[in-house]
Amino acid sequence: MKNSVGREIPEYIESYGQVKPFDGALANYGERTKTSVKLRSVKPGDNKLVETIDEVLDKVGIRDGMTVSFHHHLRNGDFVLNLVMEAIAKRGVKDITVAATGIFKIHEPLVDYIKSGIVTGISVNYIAPGPVATAISKGLLKKPAVLMSHGGRPRAIESGDLHIDVAFIAAPTADSYGNMNGVQGKAACGTLAYAVSDAQYADHVVAVTDNLVPYPACPIEISQDYVDYVVKVESIGDPNGIVSGTLTVTKDPVGLRIAKLAAQVIEATGYIKEGMSFQTGAGGTSLAVAAEVRRFMKEKNVVGSFAAGGITGYMVDMLNDGLFRSLFDVQCFDLKAIASMRDNPKHQKMSGSLYGNPHNRGAVVNNLDVMILGATEIDTDFNVNVVTGSDGIIIGASGGHNDTAAGSKLAIVVTNLTKGRLPVVKDQVTTVTTPGETIDVLVTERGIAVNPARQDLIDKLKDTDLPIVPIEELKNIAERLTGKPEPIEFSDQVVAVVQYRDGTVIDVVRKPL
Amino acid sequence: MSQNRSMLIIPGNSPKGLQNAPVFNPDLLVLDLADGVPLEDKDSARLLVKEAIGFMDYENTQVVVRINSLQSGFGAKDIEIITPVQPIAFVIPQGNAEQLQEIEILLAESEKKAGLKEGSIGLIPVVETVKTLEQMSSLLNVSPRIKSAFFNAEGLAQELGIVRSKEGDEILYARSKFAMTCRAAGMNSFDTAFTDSNDYEGLEKDCLKARNLGFTGKAAIDGRQIDTIHKIFV
Fold first, then answer.
1. Residues 6 or more apart in contact with residue A203 via CB below 8 angstroms
2. What are the boundaries of each domain within chain A?
3. Residue among A253, A418, A446 minimizing CB distance to B223
4. Does residue B92 fall inside a structural domain?
5. What is the domain count for chain B?
6. What is the extent of the structural domain holding B180?
7. Which of A205, A242, A461, A473 is at 20 to 30 A from B58, Cα to Cα?
8. Per the UniProt entry, what is one GO biological process (chain A) (predicted)?
């Protein structure tokens, strides 16, 4: 069958089930019921502290077919997923589904567990290019991986679509009764936002820490009433892989030109205004957009209401300079962001659900004015791919892409028109991650295209000297520079299901031939 | 009518640079075969530049090629290979009168061979030695192909053994003489590039200084500098 973005998807996928096709970004709102939670209440005097991960596995009754979850705030420095999976593998337990908010290169040991059938399922909302993504693309995983968004995952957990048997929460600091935070300890990572739904809804919740402190572990982010066990390990992560020292604005002249054009679009469409809200990524070009927006805000003497998302030191500087009244932080990218979140009450943490869940009583993305997004590919219907690369291999997942595009009033994709000698604008993207109906503007170094559905923006931009062109023209320029690449050939085997934030299927990834 | 406010210098051995340069909208795009290209890349850069001029979307900018000097042993070949794709001019390093006269002859031959009208490709001498600076009045009259000249302070500083500063006090006389001579001859004058491409404020001050000394435009070594140059040289 075809879904509403014209993608051919199966009605039923083995080991996934019946497919609910994507039917539009706003098609699935309304009354919702949250799933119930099973827990074992804790008597006064009970001890939650457990000596080893192995002992925890006994206590939670780990067995074949279970789903275990992890958060990715320790990013490429995370030891916890590997420690837990190693202990599970040693027991000969099979058919485990790993529900991780993010998977990085450091999680390469998963590939062997996939090959040996210890891990047969993966659900993930961010996946870095690397061995695990490649193994999934090659069809080594028994069940199709499920690629979600940052808001879609908590939605799936809260609705019961994604049931977690055991949540293992890497805690940079914890006490023996399960209170945790991410702002203290040698593996400090800032907020633990992506783990909040896991803590609230999993059957068993385990805090894994290398910094056990006297009770209570203030400031508490995830509290004791959600936690069954606490286990101390030697180290939960490598600080070098967890945070960056400093993330800086790009110096690439092309990236800076794109950023400047994007900021001019924001200004010309009237979004540089008192109370404005803004989100951008941590990449060099995204930060360059922030730098240009900052310049406009200063010129116009404007104070924004909030900036949101993964927070960098650059956004902290904007807060401290009085350019925003507050920050909503779902992930701290650097040391400055961690310190600010810890010390400044205007720097608020937000759970993944609060950030982008479409089925709660209103996510923060709904209040976003301007969102700056990247793209691996974008098609002439403005559909965006951030999942598969030019060879059809998985290189990412939505993260917050389709959440923020849907929520924001002005969703701008910034990208070079060509990357690695390939055009970025195409007739059809390889995989749809974010529907074109939620993308408003594409900014490249060679021109700006406005979604024809946004006549209001077209009207505002038509009298400016910005290089506004139809998206088809950008596609033609790109193809003239690079040639038109041969289409990638795929087999029929579905290796990953791309869920839209509301749980419908926006696309599938098939195994490249 | 084409403007001559900015010239962006791009190394001829950089495919990415050659592809991206037009997006910055410089008035002149200088595809460099000389200082910016190491010896081992001279041959390949020459061919790359030739192909780029034939293929890339340079229609909104005036493409010129900075060839190697004749003394280097590469200059004559540069003229022979590049002439058929007809850049609007060649930039001539160490543009002394003798060399310009020799190039005039070589270029006329190459134009004839390529079926181009004689004189269709211009010459932009680079003034970067004390001798050429002092001979400028006669230099600009060597060939009717010369409509512009480029002052390269870095070359001059090297010859004189002086340390360059952002303020440029050490090149005040040279700049003034160059700009005034060009003005007297009715020619475009391009000032030396501002080499700190991250310092926009410094660039703007340097542009203002050059404009006030009589220059009509300025060279750039980074696409990010073009907007600032165009802000001052209107």
1. A38, A39, A60, A163, A164, A165, A166
2. 48-242, 253-489
3. A253
4. yes
5. 1
6. 6-232
7. A461
8. acetyl-CoA metabolic process
Mean pLDDT across chain B: 94
pTM assigned to the model: 0.91
A256 Cβ under 8 Å from any chain B Cβ: yes
Token pair for A296: 């406009």
User: φ and ψ at A456, to 5 degrees?
Assistant: -60, -40
A174-203 pLDDT, tens digit per residue, is: 999 999 999 999 999 999 999 999 999 999
> What CATH number matches the domain at A48-242, 3.40.1080.10, 3.40.50.150, 1.10.10.10, 3.40.50.170?
3.40.1080.10
Residues of chain A positioned with their CB less than 8 A from the CB of B57: 477, 480-481
In total, chain A counts a number of residues equal to 513
B25-51 tens-digit pLDDT: 999 999 999 988 999 999 999 999 999
B137 part of a folded domain: yes
Beta bridge partners of A304: A324
Q: What is the mean pLDDT of chain A?
A: 96
Q: Which two tokens stand for residue A273?
A: 């205004």
- In this structure, what are the phi and psi dihedrals at residue A159, rounded to the nearest 5 degrees? -85, -15
pLDDT at residue B222 in the model: 94
pLDDT at A245: 60
- Closest B-chain CA to A256: B224
A246, pLDDT greater than 70 = no
Closest Cα in chain A, distance from residue B194 (Å): 16
- Please give the ipTM for the structure prediction: 0.81
CB contact under 8 A, A446 and B224: no
Kindly report which listed range (A218-232, B49-63, B75-89) carries the lowest average pLDDT score.
B49-63
* Residue found under tokens 């900075």: B66
B98-128 confidence digits (pLDDT tens): 999 999 999 999 999 999 999 999 999 999 9
Query: Do residues A103 and A124 make contact, with C-beta atoms less than 8 angstroms apart?
Result: yes
- Give residue for tokens 């709660």: A360
User: Would the CB atoms of A254 and B223 count as touching at under 8 Å?
Assistant: yes
Class of domain A253-489: alpha beta
For residue A418, what are the β-bridge partners? Answer: A423
Residue B1 forms part of a structural domain: no
**A414 in reach of chain B (CB within 8 A):** no
CB atoms within 10 A of CB A478: 22
Question: In CATH, what number is assigned to the domain containing residue B89?
Answer: 3.20.20.60
